[in-house]
Amino acid sequence: MHTKESLIEQLKQLGIDREGTLLIHSSLKSMGPVEGGADTVLDAFTEYMKDGLLVFPTHTWSYINADNPRFYVDRSPTCIGILTELFRQRPGVVRSWHPTHSVAALGRDAVEFTSGDHRFDTPCARGSAWGKLLDRKATILLVGVDLRRNTFIHGVEEWVDIPGRMTDGHEQLYTVLSDGTEIAVPSRRHCGLSWSQHFWKVDQVLEDAGAMYKGQLGEAVVRVCDAAAVSEVITEMLKANPDLFSDNNPLA
Fold this sequence. Notes:
Elements (H helix, E strand, L loop, with lengths): L3 H11 L6 E6 L10 H12 L4 E5 L12 E3 L9 H7 L5 E2 L7 E5 L2 H5 L14 H7 L3 E5 L7 H10 L10 E6 L5 E6 L15 H6 L3 E6 L2 E7 H14 L12
Parallel strand pairs: 1-2, 1-6, 3-7
Antiparallel strand pairs: 2-5, 4-5, 6-10, 7-8, 9-10
């Protein structure tokens, strides 16, 4: 049975900068039995990162759309796992205002980190929280999930301006604040092939380049990604081969 203390010890062994910025994609089930369950896992992350910035994605893209256009910052549930949903509701956590690709943050500069995302009409704009991960040389931790769940790679594709990744037109979405204020957010969406289903192709490439290494948290295999290094490697690969993540490119 894993405990808060044993998880914190594993985080130390992974070498994650506890004063830096850490974004986590996660599968709670993959971690095995944890005394106290999801709350203990979040307690471990929170304690470990108490002098830095802890971030979870709190996406709502699966159900916020033209037919259901209102994203409520304080109560729209996440669509990507129990840890993200519980984290966003914790005291002190700040959630960004992007209607489909929000993040929630706790710790140093949380307000600054999450601010302004509703000003962009794409999911992972360079000036959004996803681009700020690059600016802050953040660590991205994939707990029991692989690169197919690494939203940051969508950001790299967007910044390189790879064609066919997003709709040309906009959906009229709205962000609704806790006081009822409604903000119009015209939004483009990811489209076309399931590009992210092929992000796994660069797994070994990133490891060989030193942009990512693997370890363990609980019973989960984890991938520890250096956001800046990941961006550099994948940017060069996409510039050389824009179809890198297509069905027609069998080898990264």
